[in-house]
Amino acid sequence: RRKNTMETQNSAIRDLIIPIERYPHLNDTQTLQEAIESFMSFRAGQQERLHYNMIFVVNDLSQLVGRMFLLDIMHGLAPRLFDNTKVDQFDGKEGEYPDLVFLHEMSTFSECGKNRDKPIRPLIHAIDFSLPADTHILKALVMMSSRKDFDVPVTDNGTIVGVLRLEEIFMAMCNTYCKIP
Fold first, then answer.
1. What pTM value is reported for the model?
2. CA–CA dist 78, 168 (Å, integer)
3. Strand ranges, E, within 113-179
4. 3-state DSSP call for residue 44?
5. Which helix (H) or strand (E) holds 19?
6. Distance (Å, rounded) from C-alpha 62 to C-alpha 25?
7. Contact (CB, 8 A) for 39 and 24
8. What is the three-class DSSP state of 11?
9. By the 8 A CB rule, do 65 and 59 touch?
10. Which residues contact 70 (CB under 8 A, 6 or more apart)?
């Protein structure tokens, strides 16, 4: 069981983070195949489900340059599937577009295999929000909530040291502020 970090560290997020070494990350020169392998190496639970839905991307100097989500990898593997089925306005259950994706099934599966060696660089999202390691847990929660960003890099003196997820804040709050009997 985790010790009560809220009392010993003035409620800072420093002890709640997942250290960067234990979070998926790869170099911006790597490929979709390597991104898939990185995600697959972080599995959890009896059914071997993916543990994370996001991966950090660093440069050759190990500086954080961005992040990618699972959907970004799928876009990279099958870009024509998503390009051909874009809809400007949702047509509802009766709309014709969602059913058209099945027409792309064969080309999508063949395209996936061909695109595995493509670089991830065009799929990377810049990071415009991070939290210092000494941020108070409640301030972090409010900031994450207002941005609707629940996997946030945490820095110490400008260097990424880990990731704060909503799950860690939830557990800390349930074990400290809102103790469950």
1. 0.69
2. 33
3. 131-132, 151-156, 159-165
4. strand
5. strand 18-19
6. 10
7. yes
8. coil
9. yes
10. 39, 50, 53, 54
Structure tokens at 21: 């070494």
User: In the block, which residue shows the tokens 């010993």?
Assistant: 8
User: In a structure prediction context, what are the per-residue pLDDT tens digits for the chain, which is 181 residues long?
Assistant: 444 444 444 589 999 999 988 888 899 999 999 998 888 887 765 567 777 788 889 888 878 889 999 899 988 988 877 665 455 555 544 445 555 555 656 566 666 678 889 999 999 999 889 999 999 999 999 999 999 999 999 999 878 889 999 999 999 988 877 776 6
108: tokens are 């999508």
| Pair of tokens at residue 179 | 């103790």
CB 116 within 8 A of CB 79: no
